[in-house]
Amino acid sequence: MSDYHDFDHFGLDPRIVGAVKSMGYSTPTPIQSKAIPIVLAGRDVMGAAQTGTGKTAGFALPIIHRLLPQASSSMSPARHPVRALILAPTRELAEQVAENVKMYVAGTPLRCATVYGGVDMEPQTQALRAGVEIVVATPGRLLDHLGSKNTSLSQVQVVVLDEADRMLDMGFLPDISRILNQLPKERQSLMFSATFPEEIKKLAANFLREPVLVEVARRNATADNVQQELYRVHESEKTGALLELLRSRELKQVLVFVNTKIGCRRLARELQKQGINAEAIHGDKSQDERMKALEGFKQGTIDVLVATDVAARGLDIVELPAVINYDVPYAPEDYVHRIGRTARAGASGLAMTIATGAEDRAVAGIERLIKRTIEVMPIEVRRAQRGERHERGRERDREVRGERPKPAAPRRQAPADDFFSKPYEATGNESETAPADDEAAVPVGAGKKPAKLAALLGGSKR
Fold this sequence. Notes:
Elements: H1 14-22, H2 30-40, E1 45-48, H3 55-67, E2 84-87, H4 91-104, E3 112-115, H5 121-130, E4 134-137, H6 139-147, E5 158-162, H7 164-169, H8 173-180, E6 188-193, H9 198-207, E7 212-215, E8 226-232, H10 238-248, E9 254-257, H11 261-273, E10 278-281, H12 287-299, E11 304-307, H13 309-312, E12 322-325, H14 332-339, E13 349-355, H15 360-370, E14 375-376, H16 386-401, H17 430-433, H18 437-440, H19 452-456
Parallel strand pairs: 1-6, 1-7, 2-4, 2-5, 3-4, 5-6, 8-13, 8-14, 9-11, 9-12, 10-11, 12-13
Helix pairs in contact: 2-3, 3-4, 6-8, 14-15
């Protein structure tokens, strides 16, 4: 490891160092100590580090330093072309990276703009046309702006792929290729991520030129300061197990991961019914709704944030005490990203996973990836009664169909008839209707005259 014990020894511009120190950082993290000198030297980099170890500053600080000699205080957009492009997979991560970059350049003439989908394009268009040196964008929305001629990438000097593995998982490879084809051939290229599966290596072979691999931990490893626990339960006990963990541990700020948007909505609603202040954050939510939920969670007005992987990528929550995997992730790499939300910047954290028998194979895949066995912990959960499970199943079916539960119609009772409440009274006509004893002994049809009605209906006369 390099001997950089503070930011003054990198040779960064004093304005950058001052901005970093004003944010409360004095000692660089391992990834920063290794990556900053290499990026300053103009080399291409593959940076592998656990989430929450400071990758953003590891590439942003040296990029800003390299752009400062060309910075201009002119108001002309022509004097502020896009010189650095940072691509991120989600809106939240793009917003988080841009927020840090804007603080780093606060004391310089450099400008930074954020571009992502789910919001009105017009404010982004105005910012791009006014001129910005650094653009942080998601691939799809950036292509929209390029198609509308709102900006140009012809003068980009540095491009960064942040969380590159997630972008490939989300199917962004065609979009990334289209964007890279619009960049100058002579450029510096950086790739940073918590994990580097084989697909990323193939992309790097075409994207990077003689890259320097920077690793501060074993690839796909989880942080040592995260306590990992596994709880094995029956499928019907999952929600009960989650409630038990929240209440027994007295957790007040927890990020709960699920695999689907429907499951995200359903679980948040169930927690609310149980008196827990919970909110859902997933891809179908508008950007305003997602930012409002995230802000409430950061401020402590929301205790439990239920999220999907896409929505949670890039969330940076200071001192998040715990993460719970309500669903075991489909991809083992997602487990590393999920539990990386806690124990950030050297703090300790707790990662709990609730697994059913059907998820045993996924758990085994995670343990192979991280090269360690997750400790199985005991838990006692009250099992839902049969009637409760059936009612929940009907409710889930209605949710899938988009139906609202119908209120039960009030039961209407017929008016009571006084005739049935009176005692029996003889009428004196019983002898006319009741058969005689000898007549009752005669078999049916024997010795009787044919009825008149039978003749009318075509019966024979005797």
